[in-house]
Amino acid sequence: xxxxxxxxxxxxxxxxxxxxxxxxxxxxxxxxxxxxxxxxxxxxxxxxxxxxxxxxxxxxxxxxxxxxxxxxxxxxxxxxxxxxxxxxxxxxxxxxxxxxxxxxxxxxxxxxxxxxxxxxxxxxxxxxxxxxxxxxxxxxxxxxxxxxxxxx
Length: 152
Ligand code: RB5
Known about the structure:
Layout: E1 2-7, H1 12-24, E2 28-31, H2 42-55, E3 60-65, H3 69-75, E4 83-85, H4 89-97, E5 103-107, H5 113-125, H6 132-142
Parallel strand pairs: 1-2, 1-3, 3-5, 4-5
Helix pairs in contact: 2-3, 4-5
The structure holds D-ribose (RB5).
């Protein structure tokens, strides 16, 4: 798979380690994040990876900031994006099986590298189950087209 990865200053080392891991698993990794430890703004990187997923430039995305919260919030503002922030593998797996998430986020200040790898494994190995879950995911995505959210 082609995976877009993004991060802010708090997650440079984690991003590098996870990129190596993803490549070892056979994935192509495109880096949209910062490689500098200088303070920067997570929304920039959340939006970049989300836009790459939206455009089909990559198949899915991985986002890392201090907590994973800010960068996933930013990504979720991009139409068509379903980003989940996880601190353990069970939610990561279920977020794919039930919610068809297309971006995984986690926090470099929250999880260690071994937990991060388990979260990534669970998410990448899981498959969307469709059926009743598809109806619910469609309901979530329909919110983007409601009055006030629709593109005029
Ligand atoms: C940066 O200090 C920190 O706020 C950011 O990485 C992230 O945790 C925000 O949600």
